[in-house]
Amino acid sequence: MVFKKVDSNQSKITKALRDFGCSVQHLHSVGKGCPDLLVGYKGSNYLLEVKDGEKPESARKLTPDQVIWHYDWRGQVAIVTSPKEAIDKILSMANNQ
Fold it and tell me: Which CATH class is domain 10-95?
């Protein structure tokens, strides 16, 4: 069994989103570049890739599989590095629908 790396801030981001009223499903175990979180908010779904904002920028780059997944995906996906950024992204995307 292969265990996928989870960024250290993912649990804080998940808690903040849930406290904000979102539903959150972890997808990091899917692998192959799939984003880390599926977030439900006000009847819509959003995909979030979590990167650790405490790490240097070079350590926050997308993996090769993530680059391919993001390029090939025809829907919404966002990269977030903090609980505040995750909530801000969800609100921004929800307001642009």
Answer: alpha beta
